[in-house]
Amino acid sequence: MIDRPAAIVLLVDDDEPKRYAVAKTLRRAGYTVHEAGTGSEALRRVATRPDLVILDVKLPDMDGFDVCRRIKSDPATCTIPVLHISSTFVDIEDKVQGLESGADGYLTNVAEPLELLATVRALLRARRAEDAAQLSTRQWQTTFDTISDGVLLLDGQGRVVQVNRTLERILGRSWSDLVGQDLPSLLGGLPASEPPLFEQMIESGTRESRDVHRGDSWLRISIDPIRDAESAIKGGLCLVSDITSQKRLEMQLLRQAQRLQEDDRRKDEFLAMLAHELRNPLASLSNALEIIGQLHDRSDEVTEAIPIARRQIQHMGRLLEDLLDVSRITRGKVELRKQMVDFGTIVAHAIETCQPLVDSHGHELSAAIPADPIPLDGDPTRLEQIVANLVNNAAKYTEPGGRIAVSLVREGNQAVLRVRDTGIGISPEMQRRIFDLFVQADRSLDRSQGGLGIGLTLVRSLVELHGGTIAVQSDGVGQGSEFLVRLPMPSESTPLAEPDRSSTVTVAPAHLRILLVDDNRDCIRTMTKLLELHGHQVWSAGDGPTALEVASTSALDVVLLDIGLPGMDGYQVAQWLRQHWGPEQLTLIAVSGYGGDEVRRRTILAGFDHHLVKPVGLSELERILAVHPRRREATG
Questions:
Q1: Distance CA 154, CA 162 (A)
Q2: Are 183 and 196 in contact (CB under 8 A)?
Q3: Which architecture does CATH list for 8-143?
Q4: Quick one: which of 7, 153, 163, 168 could link to 51 by a disulfide (CB 3.0–4.6 Å)?
Q5: Could you say which architecture CATH assigns to the domain 335-488?
Q6: What are the two backbone dihedrals, phi and then psi, of residue 591, each rounded to the nearest 5 degrees?
Q7: What pairing do the DSSP bridges indicate for beta strands 513-517 and 32-36?
Q8: Domain residue spans in the chain?
Q9: Least confident interval from 122-131, 508-517, 622-631
Q10: Distance (Å, rounded) from C-alpha 507 to C-alpha 522?
Q11: Which residue has the higher pLDDT, 336 or 568?
Q12: What pLDDT, on a 0 to 100 scale, did the predictor assign at position 560?
């Protein structure tokens, strides 16, 4: 059985009888035979890429050895096997010369068909095996080169044995420059403080990865172990990815995040400054109204205007607090001061504070609050803010004469608050966004409802901080709306906190010696007048050094001290005062347009007894003054 019937053999011999005999033997064996009688003709015919060349060493025009060298030196024909033949006796030197010229075999007894055919078959098998190996290698290399990442094959010592073209392109170096090098020398840029990547892979036995900065580019190197049949590591497969664009995007995103953080910081600073700047005029207006309200010789028009102005000042104060609360919540700066409270009492108090706004709109407000306590573990101030914001929201978006209903029930282990109104309603699209920041149901030009679109956002955040949920339901525009709040009740019964009875404190008529320190003249004038109307003796100072001079020469009971003073701030003044007077001798009250947690913390460290945020209500101030030692003595 022949190996390849279709094989083509080029037979080159100038001896026609011998050539005929050999050709006949080959054809009988099934081979296709092309013939040539000279070396020149052989070189022309070999261009057709026969599978085998049988070449006589003695030719009329050139030496057969020379013909063989030319065939083997041409890249197009160098893989074609060449069999030298000779019908005459040749010595060993001729055979050596023939083999050194590139011949694959040398045969002297061509008259013996069996030896001739056996030799031909052997050379053709070798040719096919070599072709298959080269084809496999080419196919493997082609696949290797099509991989989008750079690929290296490493031997057991971490040296490069093969690379693909992608890696040549990434590194800008040729195959010959890369093969034989170790990984650190090849890639460069590996931090000396880190263990070598190949050794780290050997130690862990698993994939190892690292990002390397090389000049203006970034590479991600991942190396996997290659194991033998016994699972021993015999090398590594290394992928090298150019992640420069990814790194640049990451750095760009990082810079953007840093800019956003800086913008957010500046926004918070702006809001704090805005609050300070707005609270000063609000404080002066509030004090002026209190002064006017205590005058007995006012007209009916003034008497009617005072509560209107007071409501508007309170409204401005609520807007300002809401705006600051949004900033605190988005920064995660809100800390709940939880205690066990009766939610029913909180709801009732919140409704009481909202009543003036409800009455001004001519609404009918009903409340269904159970007589039995509904205990919650929560911050009473924030819980009241939730209820008040929902009721105020209902009042804003309900036409005059409409109805608002507030109900509180216990459902299982939850306290369920419902606030319903007969107002303008909410469209289905708006219901999906109603709790988002700065979203308002009414976008008309008259802006009759007012507000900043942050109240419901605050409500949702505060409800979630208490572990609860809030939902809204409306049948559409003009159909009213209902807000449903669910808050978890404690599983164990815990005594409720005692209610704050400070609002019922009876203030004794004893007069106090009070120093007002503020750089805002209107605040000084109005607060001085208000305190004097209540019988207190008042000194004033517009800066820190003047305050210390007054304090050094006067017997004082209380100092109302602004924080944001020019030059020597309120903290420094308080620290000096605390060094000279004990807490029983002097009550220090911080009065400031700043009200954040950090400011309050600093006031405590500076020695203040209380921190009040402008505008300060007279009733709130009197509750603090009522517990001063001289007041307690007067009461006794």
A1: 7
A2: yes
A3: 3-Layer(aba) Sandwich (3.40)
A4: 7
A5: 2-Layer Sandwich (3.30)
A6: -125, 115
A7: unpaired
A8: 8-143, 148-242, 335-488, 506-635
A9: 622-631
A10: 27
A11: 568
A12: 93
